[in-house]
Input
Amino acid sequence: MRTTRWAVLGPGQIGGWFARALPRSEHGTLHAVASSDHDRATAFARLHGAPVTGTYAEVLARDDVDAVYVSTVHTTHADLAVAALAAGKAVLCEKPVAPTAAETDRVLAAAAASGMPFVEAYKHRFGPLARVLDATVADGPLGTPLHAASAFGFAAAERTGRLFDPALAGGAILDVGGYPVSLAVGIAAAAGVDLAALALTDVAGTVGPTGVDEHASATIAADGVTAAVECSIVAELPRSAVVEGTLGVLRLDDAFGSRAGSAASFVVHTGDVERVVESPPVDPFAAEADAVSRALADGRTEAPEMPWEHTRAVARLLEQWRTALDA
Output
């Protein structure tokens, strides 16, 4: 495979994690940085060794950029992704693709029309343990029906910035709620459940003084599976998960890994037998980049780690969650 020449669109904190991870990828190198702020792009490029900087339009117009990583605020993801796809670039887009299911569908339609890869960057889906988890659920040792429970939350130091700005689609659901929701979607898919049948019920939570959801919970359900999900930007939550069936229990003490390393193990209890399943951790950002590089080399528009069907289901459920809480 040839080297994938990457551009970071949005030289912020998350973009920095991606840039630092690229040298650990098998196929990627950082080539360009784009921003609406020239000085910010220049400083980021110098720090990470990228030879090219420019505006978004200037970088997307270059023929020496193969793929872009969209790491701007939620409300700008869709337009940048569509512009990049129209320019013939593969796209790795930070989660969520967009604040609404309709905007997400617009991006996926643009990807289909362009024939270029588009991948949503839910990092826990790209480590090798995720494939083992999928296979374990699919093999059926837990029995059916399945019930999952997972959470992701942290306590922000203060109610300021992007997280607490409704104009920038702030709030817990879009920032961290997608982790337990995407885990539930992945489990449902592995169990053979029709993702279009997944529905959201039992919504609860709080909207803070700035007008964004700060803590929320809900149940996702379809024939054969239920999942309790919870998220917060004002409270620490365990970031673990449990999947129970009629025959056993699967426990992930670390369901989502970290920015530096993917999750490495889970435990399966069936009857009196306890089995520890382990898989070597990887850099999740490097793994995301390589998933895009493989799709680009193979002429595929999707990555199996996060198929478009999963992206659509997650977007629909997140929008329903936010809408129900606002109501």
